[in-house]
Amino acid sequence: MGVTSGAGLPGLRYRLRRARPRLRLPATVAGRRRAVRGVMAGCVLALLPVTWVHAAGTPRVRTAGDVPAAPVAMVFGAGLWGGKPSPYLAHRLDTAVDLYRAGKVRVLLVTGDNSRDDYDEPDAMRAYLTRRGVPDDRIVSDFAGFDTWDSCARAKRVFGVDRAVLISQDFHIRRAVALCGAAGIDAYGVGAGEKHDITWLAGGAREVLAAGKAALDAVVRPGPAFLGPHEPGVERALETAGR
């Protein structure tokens, strides 16, 4: 039998309103103070990782012109478009080329994702660099740089990197410097310049969330997703560069 009258609707709305959970403030002044303190403490804890990233990374961020020389530059992957470096990744690689030509670094370690056959960041980065005049034997590929911590941990533990210039966008470079420092690398960072468009803003917002994982990685120092044996590629490339 269908409903033929709206007479019951006011009562139904009343019951629905009563069923909704309500946020109730503590009844006492002391209770309200404790609630405010709890909210403030939560905000402080949420901001601690971001504060650590900036405190650890900012003092070691430089321009391409004044960054200290180092044996190795690390270029972090930033995605492919149609098998070629995305614009953000291309800007990182252009910065690496500038540093190499200026004699600030002797070897380029390109670290990125090659977790499946149809996606190969390191080889795309290598091809981009060689087309711009960087000798192939001065480029070393890390195919298991699945995230920033993995790239830093593998640079130290697999490739034996002790000192490096890191290259990324300015919204990411502080986290990269902080994490590579936690991994045992004496690292300085150079931020590839970008216009502050929607992609840049999204990257900056993501960094706020990523700071929590970064702080945890720095404290726990987990092994990378894929460790593997020692690879002598950086050592051999530096030997070649010294000839």
UniProtKB/TrEMBL annotation:
The organism's place on the tree of life at top rank: Bacteria
Protein name from the UniProt record: ElyC/SanA/YdcF family protein
Organism: Streptomyces hesseae
InterPro entries associated with the record: Cell_Envelope_Assoc, DUF218
DUF218 domain: residues covered: 72-187
One of the Pfam families matching this protein, by short name: DUF218
